[in-house]
Amino acid sequence: MDWHRIGDVDSFAEGGTRVDVAGHRLAVFRIGGDFYVIGDRCSHADASLAEGDLFDYDVECPRHGSEFDIRTGRPRSLPATRPVATYEVRVDGDGVMVAFEPPGGDR
Predict the structure, then answer these.
(1) pLDDT tens digits, residue range 49-87?
(2) Rounded distance between C-alpha atoms, residue 81 and residue 31, angstroms
(3) Using CA atoms, how far apart are residues 46 and 38, in angstroms rounded to an integer?
(4) Which of 2, 5, 22, 72 has a CA positioned 20 to 30 A from the CA of residue 95?
């Protein structure tokens, strides 16, 4: 896994923020001191999940109302039936880091 810094802890407000890094479009969610990162595109339609409303650990797609669990990426309601990608995230000092597989899946 390659780790990428996506911003300072203090740069993320509660709720969702869109971040583009290393060719990935991410939705970063902050709940208290915890961070969750999923793919930012709804699996049903090309809508930004970072712009959706957050209810506990579910984000609602702003286009069609599908909800996704930000911990697992799984859809919780129709019309979406496919999960979105999830990413490993950690806080390192004052930075928020996300892991991606290297291109080609290996080093």
Answers:
(1) 999 999 999 999 999 999 999 999 999 999 999 999 999
(2) 25
(3) 14
(4) 72
